[in-house]
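Many introductory courses stop at the sequence. We go one step further.
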Amino acid sequence: MTTEDRLAAVEQFQQEATTAIREANENVTMLVGVIGVQGQDIKHVLETQEIHTELLRELNLNIAEMKECQGEHTELLHAHTALLQQILARLPAPDQA
């Protein structure tokens, strides 16, 4: 192999290596962009999850308050029902009127 052949082989290798390095740099640049966008997406998902978690807490509190109020109303209804039954027991029967 002559010096010129060896020089041509080195130049060919250098050109191929330069192309490969350029392609690798382009791929790295694209990946960095994708990673950045995914990072923003993940941040948005986490923020949305925090909002939904807080909304669920508020809904659970509202439901608990409604159940408590419903229980109070049920007790009051039972008390009124008992009172009405006592009143009806003291009234004369319809055939006695």
